[in-house]
Each structure stands twice: as structure tokens, then as C-alpha cells.
Amino acid sequence: MHDTSFMGYFVPKDAQVFVNAYVIGRDPDVWPEELTLFKRERFVGSKTDYKGRNYELIPFGVGRRMCAGVPLAHRMLHLTLGMLLHNLIGHLMQMLLEKLWIGRTS
Predict the structure, then answer these.
(1) What is the percent of the chain where pLDDT is above 90?
(2) Which residue ranges run through the membrane (predicted)?
């Protein structure tokens, strides 16, 4: 590492630089809408990567110090949806079979 300048600021060698995620998440240039309201539709169809590659949305951190739970959350989401669909389809199939076989005895 060596001394450098970033956006007109001098950054000495071995300096610690912190990202202010609170301010980035409330930048009116990036988020022109009301920031105090939760609007899930603002993310529908968005190409914003929440994994830390786009710096306007970094709630889980970035790089090596990223939240360790993100990969677990992805796995759990897929597992939960799979179990939900499996149980729902299994229940519907059982109801369908019962409806087809009602009154039929050997």
C-alpha cells in the first residue's frame, strides 16, 4: 500500500477507511423517492446486486467482511420454498386421489 488521493482527499498509507452505509443508503441521488417508507416495488426488476458489488445497497456489508449469513439465507430460502411446494403438491395430489376413488370399493 502507498499514499494516495481519492476524490480530492489525501489518504495516507495504512489508513483505515470506513464506509458510511447509513449515508449511502439514504443518498437522494440514488434513491429519489421517500426514504422513510418501505416500497418493495422499487426493487422489482432491479439489477441492483445486494451482495456487495453495487455500493448503493450494502446492508450486508461488502467484500471479505460481508455477512456470513447471506449464503445460508439463500440455501434456506430455496429449501423452504421447495418444502412448501412439495407439501402443497403432495396434499393436493392426496385430495385429488381421494376424490377420484370416493365410493369405489372392492
Answers:
(1) 16
(2) none
